[in-house]
Amino acid sequence: MTVRRLTTTLACLAAVWAAASTTVGTAVPARAAEGAPRPAPVVRTHDGALRGSAGDGYRTFEGIPYAAAPVGDLRWAPPRPAAPWTGVRDATRPGSACPQQAGEVPGGSTDEDCLRLNVTAPADASPRRPKPVLVWLHGGGFTTGAGSSYDAHRLAVRGDVVVVTVNYRLGALGFLGHDGLPGSGTFGLADQQAALRWVRADIGALGGDARDVTLAGESAGGFGVCAQLASPSAAGLFERAIIQSGPCTGRPERPFAPAAASLSAVRAAGARFAAEVGCGSVRDAVACLRHVSVARLLAAQDADQRPAYGTALLPYDPGTALERGRFHHVPVLIGNTRDEGNGWAAGIIQAGNPVTPDTWPDVVAAFFPGPARAAAVVRAYPVTGSDGGPVFGAVIGDSNFACPTLRAAALLSARVPVWRYEFADEHAPSLTAGTPPFPLGAPHASELPYLFDLGGRPRTMTAAQHRLAGLMIDYWTGFVRTGDPNGVLRPDTDPPAWRSGAVQSLVPDRTGPARTAARHRCGFWDTRP
Question: What confidence score (pLDDT) does residue 416 get?
Fold first, then answer.
């Protein structure tokens, strides 16, 4: 196996496995399993009236526009207000996912009129009895995903909170950089802020407390939370933050975890992209790009998408912002899964790149250029036989997720309350089809079915896993409601307390504090560029 072959495989798989590990199938509302939806009362927002659906103890309002369709001259422009409507708008179906290739959204999407959000609220939530709000940013490597894939009714009912799931622009449409284009590299992040402003203005009509908002996300969505923590224009838009497998201190040279890149690097990538679609040499490249079909844009964009820092929205890389204390000082819940890298390792192996004692040095060299660095990784993580897959997964997970997450938590905790976790259920329900070449343990995104019904389809779990799911919902919504994951634990269930300053290991019937830095060899990675 050559380094070139592995690098080519990586270019195809980096985003694919980011999406595959969170593949949830077609977004089907939970009520589909309950028979015909029941109409919900009409609510009135600033833009117009909405009628959603009622479930067992909750209500949903789907496909709500929070910004104008970014089409025509609004393609690659900051989000603009949505147009008001007359009459009662049907809010019983989610809107289109933002443009993306097939992956998390089967069949993909080419519909740019996608800046929509979905609200799930407890049945008794009302303007007179508002509930705390959780705003969720989906993952998918900044190239795939949709808010509607995350059915939040268990969070809403058990946790007694209002949950908002958000679409935002993806891929080149969300993060294109180009000289002279205001907002270069940050359009998707600007969409997230527009959604938060909609929440401030309108969630009260749907039973949410507009002044009690927690911003949360996983993977690219978790990094979106990091970016909003570091963004001056997000000031005052949320009171707490939850970061799941989206370490704020990720590095763009490491291809698996989300990270930001400099504006100059994003603009250079944008120039190559413009040339690829035939707009590189024209006088007005942006005007040309705005006339290129969505399908052609998707076919030409890189699998790897990075938001830009050095911009008005994101002046500093989030890791630098944390180091300097230049972030919004709100309580944070942050963590990762124990075996983050195993899904990617399995995908690369299944694509024809075996990891053996003989091939291991070439594999490492593809990700850590420079003979001294590669040799150090090989020594720290030796492959001695058939353990190549798990060792490769450990390198990916430790370097891209576990150790950067611990680093981010340490930087945050110097200034704000921080609660740390590691999801470690080695028998978590699989999110991918087929049989992997080795047991995946608790890979990237494996905690999501414990919080959401993904694609409207509850996963098969054991009784112990159901108990863990209930406990995690209690932890998460306790944090949303009080800033402390212990805030609403139920005494009758004898829940394990979550100690501030400790990493809470989340395992069925064995949840409690754990030491994770040594397991993930963070002493090694903390000294490596």
Answer: 98
112 carries an active-site annotation:
no
Q: Is 262 a catalytic residue?
A: no
Strand ranges for 376-501 from DSSP E? 418-423, 453-454
* Amino acid (one-letter) located at 513: P
Reply yes or no on whether 62 is catalytic: no
pLDDT in tens, 470-514: 999 999 999 999 999 999 887 666 778 898 889 999 999 999 999
Which one of the listed residues 340, 446, 447, 520 is annotated catalytic?
340
Helix (H) or strand (E) holding 470: helix 463-482
Q: DSSP letter for 313, please.
A: S
Compute the CA torsion angle 418, 424, 429, 433 (nearest 10 deg): 100
Which of 96, 149, 219, 505 is catalytic? The answer is 219
**Is the pTM for the entire model greater than 0.70?**
yes
Structure tokens at 494: 């004898």
Task: Give kind and range of the element (H or E) at residue 390.
Answer: helix 388-397
Nearest to 446 by CA among 509, 506, 512, 516: 506
Q: Are strands 150-151 and 131-137 parallel, antiparallel or unpaired?
A: unpaired
Share of the chain above pLDDT 90, in %: 81
Supply 290's token pair. 């705005």
Buried-state track 459-474, b at ≥16 Cβ within 10 A, e below 16: bebeeebebbbbbbbb
